[in-house]
């Protein structure tokens, strides 16, 4: 049996800089991956099959699953028995479906003895048809992501962060949020310094950048404001922002202890929310 970890994707910044004729939005986003995520396992089999379990499995159908799309995209003639243990909330802005498709791509490439996924324009353009976030999730590394998600620049100089991810248990449609965004032509991210002296200077740079989907998502789903308030008012929080199209928001903290304390504080007040302390970028 072979296992792959599908790490949650967090958009630390998400700037919408334009729109293509096909309706897709041009993005400029700093993406980091979390130490929390879904688990996929793969076994040899004649036919292709998927079973889903885990704490967040309930609403997720096998039909049209992004994992099966990735398998078909890779080689539609081969079989495998795949198990997904779902830990990430569905439709929550941390790319669960994309991370799962990407993990399937990596896992099946190994199971079927295919070459490792290459970092090429052709490859990224091809797999972005499964989902715009799939290319960045295949490599699962700290990345400046642009285009509609198919242009990837890996970054190796950014400090690791201690974070808490919070989802108020409302599913948000990515398409609906993009439709609600009024300004489709915002400035790109500010210049990314080639050196940060530590976490504080990185957070200071992050706070000067934005998530251009945040106010549109908040107008559709008021629970996002409650989530950001709960994170901002937690002890030692240095930055609170929404990831992707929401509703998951993240808080950044100075160390692992502060992140764990904040997670307990937030889940103590909101026992029905999904709250997870983690590291980003490590
Ligand atoms: C917004 C982001 C930011 O990382 O994350 P999530 O909130 O989904 O996690 C992504 O761009 C989402 O990527 P992904 O969820 O894979 O998108 P897709 O399945 O390809 O598209 C979902 C819908 O979003 C819109 N879409 C997506 C990406 C993009 N650059 N422009 C768009 O307009 C399309 O209208 C599409 O109908
Ligand atoms: N393996 C999967 N995990 C999560 N969602 C999936 C998966 N396969 C298909 N989907 C569908 O993809 C959509 C987006 O889910 P997800 O990737 O979790 O959200 P987001 O793009 O906001 O991070 C949902 O409608 C969900 O039903």
Automatic annotation (TrEMBL):
GO molecular function per UniProt: 4-(cytidine 5'-diphospho)-2-C-methyl-D-erythritol kinase activity; ATP binding
Class of enzymatic activity (EC top level): transferase
Reactions catalysed: 4-CDP-2-C-methyl-D-erythritol + ATP = 4-CDP-2-C-methyl-D-erythritol 2-phosphate + ADP + H(+)
UniProt pathway annotation: Isoprenoid biosynthesis; isopentenyl diphosphate biosynthesis via DXP pathway; isopentenyl diphosphate from 1-deoxy-D-xylulose 5-phosphate: step 3/6
InterPro entries given in the database record: GHMP_kinase_C_dom, GHMP_kinase_C_sf, GHMP_kinase_N_dom, IspE, Ribosomal_Su5_D2-typ_SF, Ribsml_uS5_D2-typ_fold_subgr
Residues annotated as domain GHMP kinase N-terminal: 68-140
Active-site residue list: 9, 133
The enzyme's E.C. designation: 2.7.1.148
SUPFAM superfamilies: GHMP Kinase, C-terminal domain, Ribosomal protein S5 domain 2-like
Residues reported in the UniProt entry to bind ATP: 89-99
GHMP kinase C-terminal domain sequence ranges: 203-267
UniProt xrefs under Pfam families: GHMP_kinases_C (PF08544), GHMP_kinases_N (PF00288)
Keyword entries, A-Z: ATP-binding, Isoprene biosynthesis, Kinase, Nucleotide-binding, Transferase
Top-rank lineage group of the source organism: Bacteria
A biological-process GO annotation: isopentenyl diphosphate biosynthetic process, methylerythritol 4-phosphate pathway
Function (record text): Catalyzes the phosphorylation of the position 2 hydroxy group of 4-diphosphocytidyl-2C-methyl-D-erythritol.
HAMAP family on file: IspE
NCBIfam families found in the cross-reference section: ispE, PRK14608.1
Family membership noted in the UniProt record: Belongs to the GHMP kinase family. IspE subfamily.
PANTHER family xrefs: 4-DIPHOSPHOCYTIDYL-2-C-METHYL-D-ERYTHRITOL KINASE, CHLOROPLASTIC (PTHR43527:SF2)
Protein name: 4-diphosphocytidyl-2-C-methyl-D-erythritol kinase
Lineage start: Bacteria, Pseudomonadati, Pseudomonadota, Alphaproteobacteria, Rhodobacterales
Gene name of this polypeptide: ispE
């Amino acid at each position: 049996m072979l296992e792959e970890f599908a790490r949650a994707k967090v958009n630390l910044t998400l700037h919408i800089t334009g729109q293509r004729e096909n309706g897709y939005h041009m993005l400029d986003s700093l993406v980091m991956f979390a130490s929390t995520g879904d688990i996929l396992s793969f076994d040899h089999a004649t036919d292709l099959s998927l079973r889903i379990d885990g704490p967040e499995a309930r609403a997720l159908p096998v039909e049209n699953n992004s994992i099966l799309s990735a398998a078909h995209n890779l080689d539609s003639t081969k079989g495998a028995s795949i198990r997904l243990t779902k830990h990430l909330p569905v439709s929550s802005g941390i790319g669960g479906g994309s991370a799962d498709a990407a993990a399937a791509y990596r896992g099946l490439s190994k199971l079927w003895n295919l070459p490792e996924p290459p970092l090429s324009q052709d490859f990224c353009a091809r797999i972005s048809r499964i989902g715009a976030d799939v290319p960045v999730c295949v490599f699962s590394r700290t990345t400046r992501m642009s285009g509609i998600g198919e242009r990837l620049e890996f970054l190796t100089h950014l400090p690791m962060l201690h974070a808490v991810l919070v989802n108020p248990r409302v599913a948000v449609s990515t398409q609906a949020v993009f439709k609600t965004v009024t300004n489709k032509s915002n400035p790109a991210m500010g210049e990314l310094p080639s050196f940060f002296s530590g976490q504080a200077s990185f957070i200071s740079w992050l706070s000067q950048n934005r998530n251009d989907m945040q106010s549109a998502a908040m107008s559709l789903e008021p629970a996002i404001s409650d989530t950001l308030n709960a994170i901002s008012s937690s002890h030692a929080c240095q930055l609170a922002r929404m990831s992707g199209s929401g509703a998951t928001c993240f808080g950044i903290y100075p160390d692992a202890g502060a992140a764990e304390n904040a997670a307990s504080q937030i889940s103590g007040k909101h026992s029905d929310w999904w709250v997870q302390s983690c590291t980003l970028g490590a």
